[in-house]
Amino acid sequence: MNDILKSIAKQAQVEHCISHVRLEEFANLIIQECNNLNKQVLTQSNLGHYMVIERIMNKYQDHFGVENE
User: Fold this and answer.
1) How far apart are the C-alpha atoms of 65 and 26, rounded to whole Å?
2) With 0-12 CB in 10 A as exposed, 13-18 as middle and 19+ as buried, what is 43?
3) What pLDDT is recorded for position 47?
4) What is the DSSP letter of 1?
5) Distance CA 17, CA 50 (A)
6) How far is residue 31's CA from residue 51's CA, in Å, rounded to a whole number?
7) Half-sphere exposure for 32 (CA within 13 Å, toward CB)
8) 12-68 pLDDT, tens per residue?
9) ∠ Cα 17 60 64 (to 5°)
């Protein structure tokens, strides 16, 4: 498990609650979802670079039901 994933698990206070293998699998699934969202936004958009990034960030927040901190 890489350091970034370890840090995220610690922030979420699940580093001792879930196996490293399951945590890596969970992270991989999240990344796949993010990549799918990226593809949706980029294929539907003729916007400038910063507007695309903002739209992708909003898409993540809506999709996962979280707000940017």
Assistant:
1) 17
2) exposed
3) 66
4) -
5) 38
6) 21
7) 6
8) 888 888 888 888 888 888 888 888 888 887 777 676 777 888 888 888 888 877 765
9) 45
Residues 6+ apart with CB under 8 A from 42: 52, 56
From the list 10, 36, 33, the residue with the least C-alpha distance to 23 is 10
- When pLDDT is cut at 50, 70 and 90, the band that residue 1 belongs to is low
Locus of tokens 């979802």: 33
Residues in CB range of 56: below 8 A, 6 or more apart: 37, 38, 41, 42
**H helices of the chain, where?**
3-11, 20-44, 49-64
pLDDT (0 to 100) of residue 45: 66
